[in-house]
Amino acid sequence: MLKKILGLLMAATMIFALAACGQTPAQNSDNSASSDSVVSSKTSQTQSSEAKTSASIGEAQTESTDNKTLVAYFSWSGNTEEMASYIAEQTGGDLLEIEPKAAYPADYNETGDIAKVERDENARPEIANLPASIDAYDTILVGYPIWWHTAPMIIGTFLESYDLSGKEVYPFTQSASMDTEQFNQSIEFVREVSEGATVHNGLFARPSDTGAIDDYLEEVLGNNK
Ligand SMILES: Cc1cc2nc3c(=O)[nH]c(=O)nc-3n(C[C@H](O)[C@H](O)[C@H](O)COP(=O)(O)O)c2cc1C
Fold first, then answer.
1. Which atom, in ligand 1's list, is nearest to the CA of 111?
2. In angstroms, rounded to a whole number, what is the distance separating the alpha carbons of residues 47 and 42?
3. Of the residues 64, 115, 140, 159, which has the fewest C-beta atoms closer than 10 A?
């Protein structure tokens, strides 16, 4: 009889302990997989952009020491962002949106005027969410739209903020006209502001042209996802 009571008590204790955990080991591993994928997944776009950026960079530095690709981009109207998200997905890189401290106006012409002055003055507009360090990354894909025949000056701010010695930089861009001379001029600018880095041939493709993006990633990174 005593044995029976003890047996019942042990069974009750085990049921209680499992209920308190509320999860099986399989459920636990599912959770960690989904939190890892936040780093480069598009789902992070539903968070506020500030939270998204710090989460991306923070997780990369603390959790995934073997993921050393950063996909940093500036986008005013979303086209470069589309390209950057796709590239981050394909490479498993961490996504960072470069956000200006003084946001550009929603009006195209007003933004055009500001951007023209910035280009003429070789200005370096401040960045609101500049990571303290990008040391964890040795491959940096940097994306931007063509502005006034070259890269937006904020790309200069970003790249000049770090010691890029030994890093591999891969520019990617697109524009309204898809004029290759303007593209080449932008690559020249990226080279000027990336002291110490190797700046590779860039990618100039429309965001919807995923075939061209895939080919580029395979050619320069050996990426064949
Ligand atoms: C300030 C500004 C300057 C631009 N200058 C050029 C240019 O010189 N050549 C060009 O082909 N397109 C130019 N464009 C068009 C953009 O390159 C094009 O709309 C691009 O797709 C925008 O990318 P985004 O959506 O990532 O901002 C300019 C757009 C803006 C807002």
1. 1
2. 10
3. 64
For 87-101, write each residue's pLDDT tens digit: 999 999 999 999 999
180 belongs to a structural domain:
yes
Is 12 a domain residue? no
Ligand 1, CB cutoff 6 Å, lining residues: 75-80, 108, 111-112, 115, 145-149, 174-177, 179, 182
Distance CA(196)–CA(163), nearest Å, equals 7
Locate tokens 């498993």: which residue?
92
Residue 26 lies in a domain: no
Q: How many domains does the chain contain in total?
A: 1
8 A C-beta contact, residue 170 and residue 213: no
Residue with tokens 């701010």: 157
For residue 106, give the DSSP letter: S
Q: Provide the b/e sequence for 68-97 (b: ≥16 CB within 10 Å).
A: bbbbbbbbbeebbbbbbbbbbbbbbbbbbb
Nearest CA, atom 27, ligand 1? 76
pTM comes to 0.77
Total length of the chain: 225
Q: Domain with 74 in it: what CATH number?
A: 3.40.50.360
Q: Which atom of ligand 1 is nearest to the CA of 78?
A: 25
The pairing of strands 203-204 and 198-199 is: unpaired
Within-domain flag for 118: yes
Rounded Cα distance, 193 and 187, in Å: 10
**pLDDT tens, 139-152?**
999 999 999 999 99
